[in-house]
Amino acid sequence: xxxTALVTGAASGLGYELAMLLANDGYKLIxxxxxxxxxxxxxxxxxDKFNLEVITLIRDLSAPNVAQDIIDTISNxxxxxxxxxxxxxxxxxxxxxxxxxxxxMLHLHILTTTHLxxxxxxxxxxxxxxxxxxxxxxxxxxxxxLMAIYYASKxxxxxxxxAIANELKGTGVTVTALCPGPTKTDFQKTVAEDSSNxxxxxxxxxxxxxALYGYNSMLKGKAYAIPGKFNKFLAVLPRLVTRNAATxxxxxxxxxxxxx
Length: 260
What we know:
The protein is an alpha/beta fold. The protein has a single domain, classed as NAD(P)-binding Rossmann-like Domain (Rossmann fold). It contains nine helices and nine strands. The chain has helices at about 15-25, 35-50, 65-75, 100-125, 150-165, 185-190, 205-220, 230-240, 245-255, and strands spanning about 5-10, 30-35, 55-60, 80-85, 130-135, 175-180, 185, 205, 225. It has a seven-stranded parallel beta sheet, with helices on both faces. Helix 1 (about 15-25) packs across helix 7, helix 3 (about 65-75) packs across helix 4 and helix 4 packs parallel to helix 5 (about 150-165).
């Protein structure tokens, strides 16, 4: 029996790479993104390479109640794998950044991710099987000056994922939080769209490598996954130094990465 996977933010970056891994394993795909042209290209590529059915949904995942809309649209599709990948960043001092954009980020990273997870979990538990991968970030492990809302929202995603992963033990359903460091994707273009100082160069990983690490960790049922030895070190840094020192270090990295 063909299994079905739902991937958000699937038009590019990690979402694209994860969709390709699922297609290679024979999953029927439901791909969601606001980028209509990008999704069409991904759909055509998967159809050409794998001859699989692909459903595409053009949705603004930062909109209220979009999770319910997605599930209502695909109501006859049992979801075997859910990948909450969609996300974006915003660089700048909190006092200067735009609330409208921050509100969209909070809706996407927290409300949509949580609601979509809630909506697919019940049927997964009833069937006794299912995999959920929530794409968090290395940012989840410490405060992030100059990207305060992004870091905080990713911290929520990690905590939420670990908590329900524990609750679901013995049900046949697993939840994994993928926590990559800087990754070469279109994400960086949205961090500071009107700034020329938004090119991160430090500790950069490829989207393909990060996606494969996260995918394999999901299949193994790990509660969280941090790709890269240096990233694993950075994740425990707040335990090795004071929180003020860790916050200072993060700020210096942010500033260095966005120098002209």
